[in-house]
Design brief:
Elements lengths: L1 H38 L9 E5 L4 E4 L7 E6 L4 E2 L4 E5 L2 E3 L1 E6 L2 E6 L7 E7 L4 E2 L9 E8 L3 H18 L5 E4 L2 E4 H9 L20 E7 L8 E7 L11 E3 L9 E3 L5 E2 L18
Parallel strand pairs: 2-11
Antiparallel strand pairs: 1-3, 3-8, 4-10, 5-6, 5-9, 7-8, 9-11, 12-13, 14-15, 16-17, 17-18
């Protein structure tokens, strides 16, 4: 009898022990899960652009119309979102295709893009998202398809300006090696970069209220170097602006006058520094 009672009491004790152990384990699991949940950091950061190729405001060299591909790299892996990509020129939309691979968004024009033209690209918000669903911010980007580089544009402008100053007219074409570009096409090309040729004749200054400016420095527009300078009307003979001359803002060794309106440069002797130019500042 006592043995039976002892055996039953042992079973009860074991069941009680197992129940306590089960409750303890459950409490431990719940506590771990709660702690894990409270330690989770929610990703709210938007994917950021790290680079664009070609870079913003770049010139894509091409002698003829061509398809253009732009690669936009982000700081994390991305996938396609709900936003869109918009390519346009002169107010007209151009169709594109987009693909996403890893952290790169690739945009390609469906059709060949005309040369001598500046294009605007808009990557709208949420065009791509990261693994947490965070979308990108809106991105604006421009590029130009051109047969010549920006450095060549500036070189061509200098030569055309010199020709105009000597002959009082524009040349028919502008040459770049074996390549010849008509003057009208050249003007269209440089306009994409906000550049132009000044075709305004110098004229007498009669404004009695115009200020005068004085400076002396090295003569850099003729053979030999010697000190020169003088006092001039604060007036630009190219763009006909008054009170616009600034001395040596580009920090040249010899010093020069620069028009703050049209960026024309003049030697200390007063002559325009464009090669072959015979345009001078007006003596006071």
């Amino acid at each position: 009898m006592f043995g039976r009672t002892g055996h039953g009491g042992g079973i009860i004790k074991r069941k009680l022990f197992l129940s306590v152990l089960l409750l303890f384990g459950l409490a431990l699991v719940l506590n771990v899960n709660f702690a894990s949940a409270t330690n989770v950091t929610t990703d709210k950061a938007k994917p950021k652009v790290t680079s664009v190729n070609p870079v913003n405001n770049s010139v894509v060299l091409s002698d003829k119309s061509k398809k253009v591909t732009i690669k936009v790299n982000f700081n994390e892996k991305i996938k396609s979102g709900t936003g869109s990509v918009e390519l346009s020129a002169n107010g007209k939309s151009k169709p594109v295709t987009t693909t996403v691979n890893g952290n790169t968004l690739t945009i390609t024009s469906k059709n060949a893009l005309s040369t001598s033209t500046k294009y605007s690209l808009i990557i709208h918000s949420n065009t791509v998202t990261d693994s947490s669903g965070n979308g990108n911010q809106l991105l604006r980007y421009t590029f130009t398809v051109s047969p010549i580089s920006k450095a060549q544009m500036k070189d061509g402008i200098s030569r055309v300006q010199s020709f105009y100053n000597k002959n009082n007219r524009l040349p028919n074409t502008v040459s770049f090696g074996a390549k010849k570009i008509t003057i009208s096409e050249f003007q269209k090309i440089i306009a994409t970069q906000g550049l132009k040729i000044y075709t305004v004749k110098s004229k007498a200054v009669s404004n009695s209220n115009v200020k005068t400016v004085t400076a002396y420095g090295w003569n850099s527009c003729s053979k030999g170097w010697y000190k020169t300078g003088g006092t001039w009307k604060d007036y630009c003979p190219f763009c006909h602006s008054y009170n616009c001359l600034t001395y040596n803002p580009k920090h040249t060794y010899e010093g020069e006058w620069t028009c703050s309106k049209c960026d024309a440069d003049f030697c200390n002797c007063g002559r325009c520094k464009a090669s072959g130019s015979q345009v001078y500042l007006v003596k006071a």
